[in-house]
Amino acid sequence: MTTPPSPPQQPYAAPGPQAASGTPYTYTSPIPVVRTHLGHALASEWTKIKSVRSTMWTLGVFLGLVIGIGFLVAAQTGDQEYGDVPYTLPAFFGLILGQICLITLGVLVVSSEYGTGMIRTTFTASPQRHRVLTAKLLVFFAVAFVVSALAIALVGLFTEATHSGAGGVAWGGTVVKGALYVSLLGVLALAVGSMLRHSAGAITAMLGLVLVPAIMPAFLLLSQSLRPVGEKMLDYNAPNALAKIFHMGEANETGTAQLVLLAVVTAAAIAGAFALLERRDV
Amino acid sequence: MIEVEGLTKRYGEKVAVNGLTFTVRPGVVTGFLGPNGSGKSTTMRMVLGLDRPSAGAVRIDGLPYGRLQDPLRHVGALLDAKALHGGRSAFHHLLALAQSNGIPRSRVDEVLDTVGLTAVARKKARGFSLGMGQRLGIAGALLGDPRILMFDEPVNGLDPEGIHWIRTLMKSLAAQGRTVFVSSHLMSEMALTADHLVVIGQGRLLADTSMADFIRHNARSYVRVRSPQREQLLDVLRAAGTVPVEAGGGVLEVDGAAAERIGELAARHGIVLHELSPRQASLEEAFMRLTAESVEYHARAETSSGGWGDAGGGRGGGKVT
């Protein structure tokens, strides 16, 4: 497989004008020089995310869970059950499990680069590290939001088609909010992955963040003094937030407060990730 | 051109790179030589802006690396052949790199062809042999057709064919007027490729010289002499102003005199010689002597300041990542 080293730009190797003056001439490339911007980083990250199998696996399992479980639940429920809940409700059960796929993908998008050493190649190509992280966040968020919105909408359409004329609850908002919630969880995972730089560690941390507030209230509610903390956790944990988004909580609760909390936490994590990014060696 | 000025990197107490100052010029292959753990990789990572220097600065064509808008067009680097995602194909790996610097897609096929990986372009990099991985790394370095190329131990673990290929490539790149900066811990390798040498030991600059000068100053030539009348011969040699050194087994190594002259001296004094042969110490030996001196100097310096027991303190720091 040895190829003779054929310098690709041999014609351009001719000594430049400086050579005549006796100083060593400098090579000049024929490739046009461009001033790089975020668009280049976005194109690069898009190529990266779609060219690894882990993306296909995590998104495939996510779609399988949300659509599969959604259709199954839709098929098992009667028309009368959709009186005051949206037709997208069956997607909720798949999302509870599927959010773990988006968390995993979010972490992998950045931590796999640290795990493999690719990050050194990436930052050599783009020393503007903040631009790389921005591109990763945007590309991942777009992918996660589009995929989850599609899955939820598909379940909604299927349920509406199979339970015609049962209810009249508008469900467009649940598609946007549900997709936004799980995508933001994934973005949070990406930021945590960027800070911890370790796949297993970051995924564990994120699972803890999702599961612990869902489990802890059972114990916290036993104690008088910790009861308020337990109640807040019960109200704002991730599975419950999703339930509220799909109108399964108290009446006229739509999970907006929970969504805002997640957005604030995610913004803080992103700020932390950016701050650490510039300071650390890779 | 790469300009390194007072570059220093500390990891806690350990100093991996200590006040390095040198310039890498275009048109020649510059060898960056030092024993394992002497700070070569750390220096290269700082040149590429991956590690932040504790002090000092690096300029690439006059700019700090972080200020380069399209760095692949200026600097192509092969730091670690395995610094890529093994699940991605060679083509997509290079494509993502090209896109981040606005390099046309056609360049990806060109460099794959240059390094001879076209046939496996769509295969996952995970399955590549060491030699193929090295070629992919070099393809990435050539992608932006840069004026400066940096290779960190490029021949490590390669078969003779691969080594030959890389040597020829580096020379042809330099001949095109590019700056080529190659690290190695093998003097013999550098002797075959480099025109200029930057030698470091324990993070300090030991030599910054042309290869020819280095050979002239460091390749000690001496004459090996063996005689049954050793004492007599020693007296004669000393009287003639040469410096004989006993090398064990009755062998004398004589500096500062040609073999002819020693033979004539011996004949004049009627001394029997069993062996008389001019020798040249290898560059490898010269390099080891140079770096060993740096270790000694370092040890003495720390001992005098009361720092016993940590004479080689700076050593381990070089490989911290």
TrEMBL record, chain A:
Residues 11-21 have a biased composition (Low complexity). The keyword Transmembrane helix applies. Residues 1-21 are annotated as: Disordered. Keywords: Membrane, Transmembrane, Transmembrane helix. The keyword Nucleus does not apply. Residues 1-10 have a biased composition (Pro residues). The chain crosses the membrane at residues 56-75, 87-110, 137-158, 178-196, 203-222, 257-277. This is ABC transporter.
TrEMBL record, chain B:
It holds the Pfam family ABC_tran. SMART domains: AAA. Residues 2-227 form the ABC transporter domain. Residues 306-321 have a biased composition (Gly residues). Coiled coil: none annotated. PROSITE patterns: ABC_TRANSPORTER_2. Keywords: ATP-binding, Nucleotide-binding, Transport. One of its GO terms (molecular function) is ATP hydrolysis activity. The keyword ATP-binding applies. Residues 301-321 are annotated as: Disordered. SUPFAM superfamilies: P-loop containing nucleoside triphosphate hydrolases (SSF52540). Belongs to the ABC transporter superfamily. This is ABC transporter ATP-binding protein. It comes from Streptomyces minutiscleroticus.
